[in-house]
Design brief:
Elements: H1 9-12, H2 19-47, H3 53-80, E1 83-85, E2 88-89, H4 97-100, H5 111-130, H6 139-162, H7 167-171, H8 179-197, H9 202-206, H10 213-232, H11 240-268, H12 273-287, H13 296-317, H14 322-326, H15 333-351, H16 354-361, H17 372-377, H18 381-414, H19 423-428, H20 430-434
Antiparallel strand pairs: 1-2
Length: 476
């Protein structure tokens, strides 16, 4: 069969494209997308009270859609395009056929693949921020917040750390797959936004039981397995580093989960399934900046740290620090992402193997990418200390950027719509905001009845006070 004369084989499959790399990168991107849709849709929708299930899940759906549109419109080029200033690229569209079908700036696959892969990373960052705002943020405010934060906050950290022209990238900061750009950013920005939005109702803060723990585990499972694409796609190639990254990810996560369960059992007498989810998440987050540049034994060490330090900050320190108690973070995103992401960056600065870093970054420079542990071992202490200083500097930069930009964005959005729902809407939940209920049953002869004047949600009071929400009761 002859091909049409206007369709040349080398145009559809150019010589520079590696089909294996392209196939894996698209698969990895899809796995990351599945972490959000449906992973975090299920997790958020099931971990809140019945009356917040739809709103929580819908915040995820909206953010995923809005971020992708903004990403191809201007976000990708601001994050990975031509330099405008030392921390930001020039706004430009990523819609042109010639641009999308050309070779990506890193990797042997089309730019379209890179745009999608990086786009789902941007999506999950906004979705993680939503976790700090469940149960009280005005949905109209969320509609405005998402594109503004993507444009004026995410692009700055992504360009600075991941773009070859970014200033932190040039210094040699190690962030393999987003411990800084995604998790530390989301944890700090979410906590900041939660401060400005304000808390849930007193009743919700006192008792916020999950509506379906089994379904919550399904969402958590999608999140865990999807991380194979999250970290395995970091090298932009089907390589030995990609394989190591996947293995390290799951080993660290399993160790972190078991550590958290051990601490729960020792101090509270019972292993908690919600505690297991917490430990799972902190392990996934902690290994992310280091996944392909540390040895497997180091991943186990990182799992022990990620399963214990965030456990302490959440279960012990949280109730001792007044400011932490003041800010309402329903599912503990600050502890599981900001704390765990920062820890991952620091531990990366200690455990990073010089040889693995050179394989990942494709550089011969021996003055960069040297973990402090190896610097001390090989008599290159100054290089190891330099790397640790860069890692700490990157953490401080991400914290500063996200506190400042998120505060400004919340102030700006508040000029147009209230950041927090009204008291009546907070009492009713989904039916008042969307006119829908997650668990209502009806047929053609029945219609939705507004629950504003009835006591449809009084049955929630019968929930045992021993039911735990992912953040609040774990921190009591």
């Amino acid at each position: 069969m002859e091909l049409p004369s206007n369709l040349l084989p080398d145009e559809a499959s150019p010589v520079w494209m590696n089909k294996g790399d392209n196939a894996w990168q698209l698969t990895a991107a899809t796995l990351v997308g599945l972490q959000s849709i449906p992973g975090l849709v299920i997790l958020y929708g099931s971990i809140v009270k019945n009356k917040w299930a739809i709103n929580s899940a819908f915040m995820v759906f909206y953010a995923f859609a809005m971020v992708l549109v903004c990403w191809v419109g201007w976000g990708f080029r601001m994050s990975f395009g031509e330099k405008l200033v030392f921390f930001l690229g020039k706004p430009a569209v990523a819609l042109d056929e010639k641009f999308l079908l050309g070779q990506a700036f890193l990797g042997y696959f089309p730019t379209a693949t890179m745009v999608f892969f990086q786009g789902v990373f941007a999506c999950i960052t906004l979705i993680l921020i939503a976790g700090c705002l469940l149960g009280r943020m005005n949905f109209r405010a969320w509609i405005m917040f998402v594109p503004l934060w993507l444009t004026f906050s995410y692009t700055i950290t992504a360009f600075s750390i991941w773009c070859p022209d970014g200033w932190l990238a040039k210094l040699g900061v190690i962030d393999f797959s987003g411990g800084y750009v995604i998790h530390l950013s989301a944890g700090v920005a979410g906590f900041t936004a939660a401060y400005w939005v304000g808390p849930r109702t007193d009743k919700d803060r006192e008792m916020f039981p999950p509506n379906n723990i089994i379904l919550m585990l399904a969402g958590a499972g999608l999140l865990w397995m999807g991380w194979s694409g999250f970290n395995g796609g970091g090298p932009f190639a089907v390589s030995t580093i990609s394989s190591l990254a996947v293995l390290n990810t799951h080993v660290c996560t399993a160790t972190s989960l078991l550590t958290w369960l051990l601490l729960d059992t020792c101090f509270f007498g019972k292993p908690s399934v919600i505690g297991a989810v917490q430990g799972m998440i902190t392990g996934l987050v902690c290994i992310t900046p280091a996944a392909g540049v540390v040895q497997c034994w180091a991943a186990i060490m990182m799992g022990i740290v990620s399963g214990s330090v965030p456990w302490y900050t959440m279960m012990v320190l949280h109730k001792k620090v007044k400011f932490l108690r003041l800010v309402d973070d329903p599912i503990a995103i600050f502890h599981t992402h900001a704390i765990a992401g920062g820890l991952g960056g620091i531990l990366t600065g200690f455990f990073a193997v010089p040889k693995l870093c050179r394989l990942f970054y494709m550089v011969p420079d021996w003055e960069k990418y040297i973990g402090l542990g190896y610097g001390l071992q090989n008599g290159r202490t100054s290089a190891g200390l330099r790397q640790m200083g860069i890692q700490l500097g990157g953490i401080l930069f991400v914290i500063f950027i996200n506190i400042s930009t998120t505060s400004i964005i919340c102030w700006f959005v508040g000029l147009f719509v209230p950041l927090r729902l009204s008291d009546d809407e907070l009492q009713i939940g989904d039916d008042a905001i969307h006119g829908e209920e997650a668990f209502a049953l009806w047929n053609d002869e029945e219609t939705f009845q507004n629950t504003k004047t009835n006591s449809a949600f009084d049955a929630e009071d019968s929930y045992s006070m021993n039911s735990r929400s992912l953040g609040d009761v774990q921190m009591v």
